[in-house]
Amino acid sequence: PNSFKLSLNFIVMQRLEEMNMNQSMLAVLLNTTGSKISKILSGKQEPDINFLKAIHQHLGIDGNLLLEVV
C-alpha cells in the first residue's frame, strides 16, 4: 500500500509545484489542516472521498487518475 501513497504524493506534489503552491497553501484552499495534508500525502492516513474530490476540483487532477493511485 505504501507505494500507492507515494504515487498520490508524487501527483499532488508535482501539481503543487506547477501551481507554485505548497502544502500549507493547499490546506487553506481545502479548508483543512496542514497536518491532515501531511498525513495523507505521507500515507499515514487514508484519503477520504471528500479529499480526493477537493484535489480534483482545486488542483485539476483527473479523478480517474486519483482513484487509480489510492
Mean pLDDT: 91
Helix content: over 70%
Largest sheet: none
Shape: globular
Low-confidence stretches: none
Structural class: mainly alpha
Strand content: under 5%
End-to-end Cα distance? 8 Å
Q: Give me the number of helical elements.
A: 5
The number of strands is 0
Cα-atom radius of gyration: 11 Å
- H and E order: HHHHH
Description:
With 70 residues, the protein is mainly α. It is 73% helix and 0% strand. It is built from five helices and no strands. It has helices spanning 2-18, 23-29, 34-42, 49-59, 63-69. Helix 2 (23-29) packs across helix 3 (34-42). The longest helix is centred in the N-terminal third of the chain and has 17 residues, at 2-18. The mean pLDDT is 91.
Q: Which descriptors would you attach to this protein?
A:
single chain; 70 residues; mainly alpha; 73% helix
Annotate the secondary structure layout.
Blueprint: H1 2-18, H2 23-29, H3 34-42, H4 49-59, H5 63-69
Quick structural gist:
The protein has 70 residues and is an all-alpha fold.
